[in-house]
């Protein structure tokens, strides 16, 4: 009987040791922001996702462009280099949902993309969604969303619930749009001062 008890205790101790080792492995990986192997062990943890950086695949804006300043709201402006033929207009969309909405119109004025400043949190469907990073000229990172393996982006998230939505741009227009979007700068302005907005623009 004693022998059975000793064997049972030994098995339990081995199992406890194995669980302890497994826990330490996962805890160490979480501490280093790496994906766990076995479990998160009840911790509220999600490792950072490595997105493809497509910045170098986006052509720089051509000389056929103009730097445009767009007032967004009090003490905040948007700077963007627009290719010739592209224009912008303030949208009249639902003011209950957005602080503001700016339409960017392609040269034929039929197709557009729209920058929304959402009042509520921006969310998307994750099914067949691929996120790709774009390093803006001011150093901030925007997240471009592509669905179903397509080469045309659906949205670009600048953080702070600032999102550019692709309305109906053609593939070529969408590529031109990325070149312009790369030049975007959100700037807080005060009398005599211009302060780039840098905090929290990298979050998805």
- What is the rounded Rg? 24 Å
What's the N-to-C terminus distance? 61 Å
Helix content: 10-25%
* Helix-strand pattern: HEEEEEEEEEEHEE
- The tally of domains stands at 2
Number of strands: 12
What is the overall silhouette? elongated
Residue runs with pLDDT of under 50 for 5 or more positions: 198-204
Give the class from helix and strand content and strand pairing.
alpha+beta
Overall residue-averaged pLDDT value: 84
Q: What strand line-up does the widest sheet have?
A: 1-7-8-9-10-6-5-4
Q: Biggest sheet: strands, sense, closure?
A: 8 strands, mixed
SS element count, helices: 2
Strand content: 35-45%
Walk me through the structure.
The chain is an alpha+beta fold. The chain has 2 domains: 1-48, no CATH class; 52-196, no CATH class. The chain has helices spanning 2-31, 171-181, and strands at residues 52-53, 65-73, 76-83, 87-90, 98-105, 112-118, 129-135, 141-147, 155-159, 162-166, 185-190, 193-196. A hairpin with a 7-residue loop joins strand 4 (87-90) and strand 5.
What is the topological layout?
Blueprint: H1 2-31, E1 52-53, E2 65-73, E3 76-83, E4 87-90, E5 98-105, E6 112-118, E7 129-135, E8 141-147, E9 155-159, E10 162-166, H2 171-181, E11 185-190, E12 193-196
Parallel strand pairs: 1-7
Antiparallel strand pairs: 2-3, 3-11, 4-5, 5-6, 6-10, 7-8, 8-9, 9-10, 11-12
């Amino acid at each position: 009987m004693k022998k059975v008890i000793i064997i049972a205790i030994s098995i339990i101790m081995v199992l406890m040791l194995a669980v302890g080792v497994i826990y330490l492995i996962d805890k160490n990986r979480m501490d280093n922001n790496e994906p766990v192997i076995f479990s998160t062990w009840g911790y509220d943890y999600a490792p950072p996702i490595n997105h493809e950086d497509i910045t170098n695949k986006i052509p720089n804006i051509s000389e056929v462009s103009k730097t445009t300043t767009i007032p967004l709201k009090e003490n905040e402006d948007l700077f963007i280099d627009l290719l010739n033929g592209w224009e912008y207009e303030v949208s009249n969309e639902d003011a209950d949902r957005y602080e503001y909405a700016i339409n960017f119109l392609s040269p034929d004025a039929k197709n557009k993309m729209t920058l929304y400043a959402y009042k509520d949190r921006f969310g998307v469907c994750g099914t067949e969604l691929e996120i790709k990073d774009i390093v803006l000229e001011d150093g901030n990172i925007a997240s471009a969303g592509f669905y179903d393996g397509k080469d045309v982006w659906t949205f670009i998230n600048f953080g702070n619930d600032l999102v550019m939505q692709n309305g109906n741009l053609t593939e070529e227009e969408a590529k031109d749009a990325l070149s312009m979007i790369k030049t975007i700068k959100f700037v807080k302005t005060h009398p005599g001062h211009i302060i780039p907005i840098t905090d929290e623009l990298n979050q998805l």
